[in-house]
Amino acid sequence: MLYLVSAQFSIQENNHTMVTEFCLLGFQVSQHLRIFLFCLLLLVYHGTICGNLLIITLVSTSKKLHTPMYFFISQLSISDILLTTDIVPNMLHILLNNGGTISFVGCITQFSWFSVAEGLECFLLAVMSYDRYLAICNPLRYSSIMTNEYCVKLVVSYWLAVFFIEVIITSSLLMLRFCGKNTIDHFFCDLVPLLEIACSGTDLVGIVVLMVGAPILVIPITIIIVSYVNIISTILRMSSNISRQKAFSTCSSHLIVVSIFYWTMFCVYLVPAKGQSSTISKVLSLLYTVFTPFINPIIYSLRNKDFMKAMQEILF
Fold this sequence. Notes:
The protein is mostly helical. 74% of the residues lie in helices and 6% in strands.
């Protein structure tokens, strides 16, 4: 039976009854498929937490991994844990019950932490590409620029910037009124579904999101593109094939992660909603909220000799 709980209403304003909770539909599929998805996502969630905690532990304990690149990878792992913990537990509950409810405050809180985690990932992927640019294109200046103090300052500034931007976006969302439809055809509280069911004007929120949210995408993407244009140009000018392969191998894992992350993000948020069904949108959302955080530690650890050596030292 479809688990749809009627909205609780408690606030009266201008003859409109205000919604105080939302109904998340999740995946409206057969029971057998929902059970399969539940088991799969539960397994992926545990793998994500264990894999990213392993990376954080290795980077913290192994002296061989006390370098800027691995420090940024550990910060990416923190962001991935934050993202999956914000989304997956509630989604598993929704799958078991074929739907579920979330309070207004809980919905806004979930969206806020989701936005913080995604914003951090954008900035971290950008600074990691800049790190590879310095290592390959300016190796003599790398040590003097990417000092431990500078790396910590970069990460702290990104955390503060993302939190500041999210406070602005969340404040604009709190200005919206929800006074009728309370059903969200998604498995978490995302921006677009919330705007679709708001009964007040959403133009102001759209302007705010565009003004403060666009830099989170535009600036990192610009840094990544410029960095890799210079990296590829430098690699092509190398005379030795061995040097080319070594240089490319140091950034191939990062390129894979960047491609997966931004491809799914663009498909969800830049492709017109009319061009894709809600099911396709949910599947694409699963890729960057659940599976990308699961794949990241696999790509960075299994494809990296330093990580494998550090893991062997701890285990054996």
